Input
Amino acid sequence: MKLRAAYLKTADDSDAFSALDIDCASGAVSVEDKWIPEIDVQYAFTKNLLAELVLTIPQKHDVYLAGVGKLGHLEHLPPTLSLVYEFANDGPIVPYVSGGLNFTWITNKRLEVAGIPLDLEDYSLGLALGAGFVSRVSENWLFNASVKWIDLESDVLAGGAKLTNAQLDPLLWSLGFSYQF
Output
C-alpha cells in the first residue's frame, strides 16, 4: 500500500469556440492545478508484474475561461486501475512502467458564464500511462516517485449544446512511501 502526495497539472487544452457573445481561442478553458492525497493498493502477480488501484478522495477544482475569469468549480473522483511492470527487484532502486484505465466521475458542477449555466459530461474514460521508481528504506518501507499521464476530457455544454471539448489530460507527479506486507 502506498500513501502519496500528487501534484495534478492539467494540460488545459480546449477547442476554439464562439458562443454567448464570447470568442474563445483554443486552450481558453483551464482547470486549477493542485496537490492531492493519493492511496495506491497493489497486488503482485509475479516478481515483476503487479496490479495497482490508485484512489483519492473527491477533489474540487476551480475552472477558468481566458478573458472572462472564474466560471465556477467542479468535483471529480478519478480511480485508476493499471498493470505495473518492475524492471528489476534486487537493486536499491527499482524502475517501473505502468499502463491502465482511468474512470473519472465528474460531479458537483457549478459553472456559468454571463449568467448562463454550463455543464460537463458526467464521466471520462481514458488511458493512464506512468513511470517511476521504488527505493527500499527498510525491510517493509519503501520510498517511491512517479509521473503519470491520464487521458481525461469532457464536452462543455450550454443548454445541452456542445460549446467545446476540454482536453484536461493531467500529469500527476507523485512522491510517497509504501508499506510492503
